[in-house]
Write a structure and sequence with these properties.
GO terms for molecular function: transmembrane transporter activity. By secondary structure, this protein is an alpha+beta fold. It has 25 helices and 24 strands. Strand 4 and strand 5 form a beta hairpin.
Length: about 800
């Protein structure tokens, strides 16, 4: 029986080749897109799961409100890890990371800048699964001045992975011994370091400072431990360890600290949740968002649904063509159950053929998709045991979903009516078919609106004035190798034609986050008048070079020797301090949080307009600029038609003063855009998948238009004989489809607005969802429908009426 079903199914496919191709292509694109998104989603969900203890590893985070600011941090105080292991039996082990920022490594006669560097405890290998290639994991990071490197780094510097015992010269003055070589960290890790320097080399790790948060701290819980119960005990931990240091610094206990609206809480974030659920301050790298997993999963589902709807529509639209077949079969004794099986066999066969085409499409598209999404996804049916059964299940579901309605619809025909020719068919006879077309275009319109809003937000971010001019600014990273020549280097480069200005600073708006410090408005260090703010060391040229705007007071100047104790604050700091006339007002700055007596008295000389120095997902926070820049970054304002030549001239000046050092630079607008690289990638992917969804909908519309025109052939012939024009007939055939597009738009607009409004809430600075977005989406959908339908309608309208009427 099955052999007979297959034979008839192949025969019908071959008999109606045109519409079989449309069905197969539509399902193939739908399956290919669904498979690509499925691979992407599974890749996103698999982050950090290569660790054997992944389900028991948690990162210790901080939720802090102080001085008018609220921070949720991915870092903790230096004693947090050791204390948790000591005080809580549920904690099996801990490890801390302290970002290094990079260092210079000697290679031959040259230095190489390495940025993927971190300090790590010797317990690193007790927590994370990082297979050792050479060395002893148990002792690798126990001693000061030791380092564990990846296999790639070992080959880069020593031409062999067996590099244990070899030595690095770091920053031209420190010797570090390689005590271990590990395999390269998998790409599906939320951190990706090349150098793990022993924590024993870092004095800061032993300061027992509970009021400064700089260490990414991870713990492994014992098998029976409950993380929620453990987290509930952390308030007492804060009281016990943070409380005394707060009292020593601010002369208040934790109760008074809390009464002022301040707090410090400790949170646990599961390791496997970090990549998709954590966007905290001081992350070890840029994470993704679970929102994109939901969005793309929904797109995959709807694309496949649209492809199935196409199949249903085309199958039922051509019901008249198969009605006599059904009637004859029923007269000859065929049961409805047998007919259903026959039609489902056809749909599953089409799905199987579509799967083969889809796999070929995915194999061809995957390299481009990986490049677009910055992934390393592979389609390997043998390496992924779930993939083949999953695909077969997907094909079965697709075949049954696509073929179910046509199968039951066609098998329900009454043989007497069919044979007498009384069966009505066509586009206008099925409300369900019209509803399916509305559904297709509603989804398409939602995707069009989503794509426009995503790109509108990205454009807003890129064109939004952040309060400084990031265009034409070259950033020379790490001026430390220049030593005391850094100011002379600045004087040399500002003489070059095409250089407008240059500044030396410890921090730039496009750098990563740094710690806040308490600044007090009262000499008694009354915490009720404290403001938590970032403090940046800059020189006199910082504000003019970066095009910042003063709103009160003046900039730093060499003409005022007292500016060494001057400070410039931003508007956010001014609002929290509450000064109506801030110029000349003193502020008290604790330079060492462990030493209450190390307080500097500064006076405000100016107020700068707020500028964005965090992601635009966050509001501008208080900031102070201080005149104390000896090294760090050099920002150069360029005004040259030949930027490459100017960069080469600056590089030569640098090499003259630091011949063995690498010249590393970037442009500030590129650094700014890198903050939103994930959004940009996701935007392009969303556009690509949305375009595929619209293409599939167009394929179905094309087929429906062909059948609608075919079933009204005689009507068209009569109208032409009576004088109807081609444009009149085209409009007549198109209006039914346009009516459905209008209905789809009415449904899609509020749904799209709700989804995109929710997405935009993640940004502190965001575009609006303008009315023209909906108008444009509606017009685009209508144009797509008209263009798709027009090919068939014009073809029908220009056909010879004699041919359509000759049988009458």
């Amino acid at each position: 029986m099955i052999k007979n079903y297959l034979k008839i199914a192949f025969r019908n496919l071959w008999k109606r080749k045109g519409f079989s191709v449309i069905n197969i292509i539509g399902l193939a694109i739908g399956l290919a897109t669904c498979l690509l998104i499925m691979l992407f989603v599974l890749d996103e969900l698999s982050y950090d799961r290569f660790n054997k203890k992944a389900d028991r590893i948690y990162r210790v985070d901080g939720d802090i409100k102080f001085g008018g600011n609220h921070f949720i941090l991915a870092v903790a105080p230096d004693p947090m890890g050791p204390t948790l292991k000591k005080d809580f039996p549920q904690v099996e082990q801990y490890v801390r990371f302290r970002s290094n920022g990079g260092f210079l490594v000697k290679k031959g006669n040259e230095n190489v800048q390495e940025n993927n560097v971190v300090y790590a405890d010797s317990t690193l290998f007790d927590v994370f699964t990082l297979p050792m290639v050479d060395g002893n994991a148990a002792t690798a990071l126990q001693q000061p001045n030791t380092v564990v490197i990846t296999e790639t780094v070992a080959r880069k510097y020593f031409n062999t992975p067996n590099a244990a015992g070899k030595t690095f010269i770091i920053n031209n003055r420190h010797n570090y011994t390689v005590t271990g070589v590990i395999k390269d960290i998998p790409s599906r890790s939320h951190f990706n370091f090349d150098f793990f320097v022993s924590m024993a080399s870092l004095e800061e790790s032993r300061k027992n400072n509970w009021v400064s948060n700089n260490f990414n701290t991870y713990i492994v819980l014992r098998e029976e431990a409950d993380p929620k119960k453990l987290e509930a005990q952390f308030d007492a931990l804060v009281e016990k360890y943070v409380g005394p240091q707060v009292k020593a610094l601010m002369s208040i206990d934790m109760d008074e600290f809390k009464k002022s609206g301040n707090y410090q809480r400790v949170l646990l974030t599961p390791l496997t949740s970090i990549h998709l659920h954590s966007n905290k301050v001081a992350e070890l790298g840029a994470n993704s968002s679970i929102q994109y997993v939901y969005i793309f999963s929904a797109i995959a589902f709807f694309i496949l649904l649209i492809a199935c709807v196409n199949f249903m529509n085309l199958s039922t639209a051509r019901s008249a063509n198969r009605a006599r077949e059904v009637g004859v079969r029923k007269v000859l004794g065929s049961l409805k159950n047998n007919l259903v099986k026959q039609f489902l066999t056809e749909s599953i066969l089409i799905s199987c053929i579509a799967l083969v085409v889809a796999l070929a499409l995915v194999a061809a598209m995957l390299p481009y998709f990986n490049q677009l999404a910055a992934k390393d996804i592979k389609l390997n049916l043998l390496a992924n045991p779930w993939l083949l059964p999953g695909l077969l299940l997907l094909v079965l579901i697709t075949g049954l979903l696509a073929g179910s309605y046509p199968a039951f619809y066609l098998s329900s025909f009454k043989p007497i009516q069919v044979i007498k020719g009384k069966l009505a068919a066509g586009f206008k006879t099925s409300r369900l078919r019209s509803g399916l077309v509305v559904f297709q275009f509603a989804i398409s319109i939602i995707l069009i609106i989503a794509t426009i809003v995503i790109y509108k937000q990205l454009h807003f971010i890129q064109s939004h004035k952040p309060g400084f001019n990031r265009q034409q600014v070259m950033v020379i990273h790490n001026s430390t190798p220049l030593g005391n020549k850094v100011k002379a280097f600045r004087e040399e480069i500002v003489k070059l034609p095409g250089v407008d200005n240059a500044t030396i600073s410890g921090y730039l708006p496009t750098n990563s986050w740094r710690n806040d410090n308490p600044v007090f408005a009262d000499p008694t260090l009354d915490q009720r008048r404290a403001v938590s703010m970032q403090t940046w060391d800059v020189d006199e040229q910082y504000i003019p070079t970066l095009g910042m705007e003063m709103v009160a007071g003046r900039n730093f100047s060499k003409d005022f020797p007292t500016d060494s104790s001057g400070i410039i604050i931003n508007e956010a700091a001014l609002r929290l301090l509450g000064f109506t006339d801030p110029i000349g007002k003193p502020l008290y700055f604790m330079r060492d949080l462990n030493n209450k007596d190390d307080v500097s008295t500064l006076h405000i000389i100016g107020v700068i307009k707020d500028f964005n120095f965090n992601s635009m997902r966050q509001q501008v926070t208080p900031l102070a600029l201080m005149l104390d820049a000896h090294n760090g970054n050099i920002a150069v304002r360029i005004n040259s038609a030949d930027i490459h030549q100017l960069v080469a001239q600056i590089a030569r000046k640098y090499k003259t003063m630091a011949p063995a050092e690498p010249f590393n630079y970037s442009f500030m607008d590129d650094d700014f855009n890198n903050l939103y690289r994930t959004e940009q990638r996701m935007g392009v992917i969303a556009v690509s998948f949305s375009s595929l969804a619209i293409l599939i909908a167009c394929l179905g519309l094309f087929g429906l238009a062909a059948y609608a025109a075919e079933q009204r052939t005689k009507e068209i012939g009569i109208r032409k004989v009576l004088g109807a024009t081609v444009s009149h007939i085209t409009a007549m055939l198109s209006k039914d489809f346009l009516r459905l597009v209008v209905i789809a738009a009415v449904i899609a607009f509020p749904v799209a607005w709700w989804f995109m409004h929710s997405w935009l809430q993640d940004f502190a600075y965001r575009t609006d969802i303008s009315w023209w977005v909906f108008i444009m989406a509606g017009i685009m959908a209508a144009l797509i429908a008209v263009v798709t339908v027009s090919f068939q309608t014009i073809k029908a309208a220009i056909s010879n009426p004699v041919k359509s009427l000759r049988t009458e």
